[in-house]
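Minutes, project check-in

Agenda point 3 was the complex the collaborators sent over. CS summarized: two entities, 224 residues total, and the question is how they sit relative to each other. Sequences were read into the notes so everyone works from the same version.
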Amino acid sequence: EAAVTQSPRNKVAVTGGKVTLSCNQTNNHNNMYWYRQDTGHGLRLIHYSYGAGSTEKGDIPDGYKASRPSQENFSLILELATPSQTSVYFCASGDQGDTQYFGPGTRLLVL
Amino acid sequence: GEKVEQHESTLSVREGDSAVINCTYTDTASSYFPWYKQEAGKSLHFVIDIRSNVDRKQSQRLIVLLDKKAKRFSLHITATQPEDSAIYFCAASRTSGSWQLIFGSGTQLTVMP
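CS then shared the predicted structure for the full assembly.
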């Protein structure tokens, strides 16, 4: 199975602070994704990428930026964190036409 | 926009019985339907998928059925075991020119001994 890792696993941030969530995959998948999971909403797509240098907006991109500096790495950036961004964030990777493999998740608490 | 509805938010069954989780989707052109399992406090783990060129797929105790006319698909877990207890998510591929999945809101399955 694909190996996707995320860091940090837990993060406490202050309102207005900058938060960077990192994701690394070692299976050479072209596509990578950032989701957030909230009770009652399932998973919602924030940003995704087709490959190094590309980032695309998902369904709920407001308040988030993404960066894909290499095939392996995909970051999610909260420039000005707000309490509404408290959530569990999952990174996933996959190839076109195939399933997505998820990282372990990052629990973010914004105070 | 495209949606995936997961009809059962919770489901309880007795060990050994079958469990069925139902999902519907809105995008007629969706062609790929994976299922994921999430155990408490953990990440999503892929369990089984089905593509639109077939209407049934089985992997051990898991069976997925797809009814394209009704835009409905379902996960059947036979001979349930306590370790099947988890949240199950269905998803459907989005056909907006990129490879994305739209997820249902999840079904909490509890298998009682």
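Noted in discussion: The interface with chain B takes residues 1, 31, 33, 40-45, 48, 50, 56, 58-59, 90, 94, 96-97, 99-105 of chain A (CB under 8 Å).
Follow-up: revisit at the next meeting once the mutant set is ready.
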